[in-house]
Amino acid sequence: MPSSFFALFDDIASLLDDISAMTKVASGKTAGVLGDDLALNAQQVSGIRAERELPVVWAVAKGSLVNKAILVPAALAIAALEAWLTSRGIGVPLILPLLMIGGGYLCFEGVEKLAHKLLHAQEDTQHHVELAHAVSDASVDLLAFEQGKIKGAIRTDFVLSAEIIVISLGTVASQPLLTQLGVLVAIALLMTLGVYGLVGGIVKLDDIGLHLAREGAGRARAALGRAILAFAPRLMKFLSVAGTAAMFLVGGGILVHGLPPLHHAISAWTQGSLAWLWGSLLNGAFGIVAGTLLLGALTLLSRLRGKGLSAH
Description:
The protein is mostly helical and 312 residues long. It has one domain. Helices cover 86% and strands 0% of the residues. The longest helix has 39 residues, at 219-257. It contains 11 helices and no strands. It has helices at 2-29, 31-44, 53-87, 95-119, 121-136, 143-171, 177-203, 205-213, 219-257, 260-269, 275-311.
């Protein structure tokens, strides 16, 4: 009996060691997407009343955990079904089409944001003025605004999380099922804690700056506080731009990888030490084109539908 227990303990320790090693490999491969995830989510939760920032980040983090609780078993089940079909001579890709849909959604959302900023710049300025007054007025109920921010952030998180889970799954595809499950769960938890911990810190930078710069603080602390206050809005503006760019880089990258001839052509064009930069720029350009085509197609369908309803 003791020998059986120690054998089981040794198996568990070996499994955990494999999970740890494979998690480190998978984390390295998903680091770029994690950076995009951070930029997008910091942008999504900006504009919230100061005392509500951390509760909103926490709500998005909980939604992100729900996303991953759905994605991890779904990815394992789809991968198992795809492998089962392949073993019977039915080569039907299942994960790739889902990723392509997610990539197309990110590109569409990015172009829609750019189009809205270009076509409705004056409306946006008025909206920001009204929002600033609303945020400063404690009597205004901003629950609907918060819920919209939370839903948008969770929706975007779902697409990025799906890509990270699939990349991680590809890293451990040859491993036993328990190792795959352990690595995906570890990546999901690390990603959620890391991203939303940083997002929470970013959105509270201005409060930290105010605390350090308050009257009575030492010169060094006050100077640091003023520097943080000057840096925080610039950081949020940068993250807003980076978040939109990330939609094209990630979405375009997904679409390009799902089209082998295009992927091989871009790989052939981008050689040398800056191949990664040119490859990312071409992925982003393709994402803009794809998003523009999707937005145009959906706008046309919407107008045709409107005309059809008005005719009736």
